[in-house]
Amino acid sequence: MKRLIPIIVLVISVLRLGAQEHDIDLTFVNFLSKSPDKIYLGAIMDIGSLNTDTHPIIEIPNRQKIRVLQEGPIIDVEIVPNRKNMNDHILNDIKDEDFSSYVNTFEYSIDAYPSYERLGPIFGEKINAEILLGVTKNPANNRSITIVKLSRLFNRLLFEVEGDKIKDNPAIAGLNLTDLMYVQDISFGRMATIVVESVSDSESIKAILEKMLGSGQKLSEQEEAILANSTIHYSVFNDPQADLGDGDTFENVKQYMKGIPTKDDFLRPIYFAGQSLSDGGMVGNLVK
Amino acid sequence: MTLRNTWVILLLFSLVYFSGCSKKAPVDPEVKPNPDPAPDPDPQEDETFYRLSSGEIEEFSLYVKGEFSAEVPSAEGQKHFQNRPKYFQPQTLKLKTDSLFLTKLGGITEAYKIKWEEQKLLLYVDESKEWKYFADKQGDQKKLVLHIVYYKNQLRNIHNISTQMGQLYNPSSIQEVLSDKNKPNSEMLWLKTKSTFTPEKETP
Q1: Each residue of A199-217: b (16+ CB within 10 Å) or e?
Q2: Which residue, A181, A230, B123, B145, has most beta carbons within 10 Å?
Q3: Does B44 map to a domain?
Q4: What is the predicted pLDDT for the residue at A167?
Q5: Does B4 score more than 50 pLDDT?
Q6: pTM value?
Q7: Which residues of A touch B177 (CB under 8 A)?
Q8: Between B14, B104, B108, which is nearest A13 by CB?
Q9: Are A228 and B125 within 8 A, CB to CB?
Q10: Nearest CB to B162: which of A14, A235, A280?
């Protein structure tokens, strides 16, 4: 069913633009969900929390219904915004889905970064590499950092903010609207990263990773040796039950990304975008 | 801002991005010594050449939350670490005055500044500006003994799973790769090997 509509590709291209220009500050509009078990369509968040370790939701009682938008056939669905209603809608939408018919592929990008403090462009926000990637310390200065981002998005929900009367809700009265955003757009699916720290330069590592992910060419003995002398961090996001198993972790991450989808993949928030409560503008996050 | 306006902005971004992209041809990997390339030792000067003569596993353990949990059968080393030990293991060591030159399979080379503290051989680590304990002279002082640890650390946090794979020369303990924050979520495989190097006449 739901093949991603072009806007997703465009948004991802903006992320990639940032990933290749490390030395300038850029504004991003899609953010990795750091609290995937809490977020829901129409939730209210503090914009300032985007760059913190978690994304707390500001619960507002007595919300009015919002109209749900998604790619594919036009639907006419309104829900009171909360986690359960969002998930119920998704489950109802995919109840007749034949997951085995999905093509077992994923998107990936490979980029080099000068340090773990500068990974913001990959995620659309500042991240804590110790929490998110398991990095215990920064590598030595002479080591390159090359990152593969693997993603596979299955569905996307949006809603029309116009017409929502939340500003009239007494619970919002004491809050500063310029600090707040709607979660207006959520993409669900799978995401992983592979980070290689090496004494070899990033161009060499990129060429090796491209062979392993793309062309499928056999690595030379020297390339195998370069990887074996590197430190590698593998991470799977927002899926604490994922099993990276024994054996070759690189291959296991690939298999995780390619695996037949389950309903959980349609319920797992990966990226989201926001709209300001004060002026209705799309929320941008300035990161390096 | 409406969704339609957003579309337009994203489209413009994308056009700028795609028009500025060009594919770069892959570059053949090139190995760089760590820390900086050092000149080849002068064969005229006094130097000692060592070749790997034996190796054994000293410890293969599972540490959970930073504490020893169980021994792991040595036969499982290949399953967890594949060819890491094969390619990280130094094959030859060349000591010359205050320098060490290492070679490994696959054409990997490393060069370090060194010094001796009695039986201990120490490497100078440029980044930390510290001397790091690397290897020992054995009793008869004709052999060198090097310890290497290969580790695989799986962290299962509330939302994410991370697996870190790496290796260290002669670490003092697992604390060298395990932070306090990550310790409660850690399951660490710790494979410690002992390699013995015997001096011999260098052959090309």
Answers
A1: bbbbbbbbbbbebbbeeee
A2: A181
A3: no
A4: 86
A5: no
A6: 0.84
A7: 136
A8: B14
A9: no
A10: A235
> pLDDT digits over A198-243, tens only?
999 999 999 999 999 987 789 999 999 999 999 999 999 999 888 8
In a domain, B16, yes or no: no
Which region, left, alpha or beta, applies to residue A3 given φ > 0 means left and ψ of -120 to 50 means alpha?
beta
| Enclosing domain of residue B193 | 49-199
Count of domains in chain B? 1
Average model confidence (pLDDT) across chain A: 88
Answer whether residue B132 is part of any domain.
yes
pLDDT of residue B194: 96
Mean of the pLDDT values across residues B2-20?
35
- Decide if A142 and B34 are in contact by the 8 Å CB cutoff: yes
Q: What are the Cα distances from residue B167, in Å, to A59, A174, B79?
A: 46, 54, 16
A25 contacts: CB under 8 Å, gap ≥ 6:
A286, A287, A288
- Among A10, A240, A275, whose Cβ lies nearest the Cβ of B157? A240
What integer is the mean pLDDT of B59-66? 96
Within 179-198 of B, beta carbons closer than 8 Å to A belong to: 179, 181-182
User: Which tokens in the block code for residue A106?
Assistant: 């994923």
- Residue carrying the six token digits 């797992």: A268
Q: Tokens 């060819």, residue?
A: B83
Q: What Å distances lie between residue B20 and A12, A15, A181, B6, B53, CA to CA?
A: 16, 15, 33, 21, 54
Mutation for A interface: B76, B162, B182, most A CBs within 10 A:
B162
Is residue B40, in this structure, part of any structural domain at all? no
Identify which of B166, B137, B191, B58 has the alpha carbon closest to the alpha carbon of residue A135.
B166
> Is A100 exposed, middle or buried (CB count within 10 Å of its CB: 0-12, 13-18, 19+)?
exposed
Per-residue pLDDT band at B152 (split at 50, 70, 90): very high
Residue B128, burial from CB neighbour count under 10 angstroms (0-12, 13-18, 19+): exposed
DSSP B39: P
CA–CA min distance B45, chain A (Å): 29
Q: Is B143 exposed, middle or buried (0-12, 13-18, 19+ CB in 10 A)?
A: middle
> Higher model confidence: residue B17 or residue B98?
B98
Note the ipTM here. Answer: 0.85
**Residue with the two structure tokens 């991240």:** A127
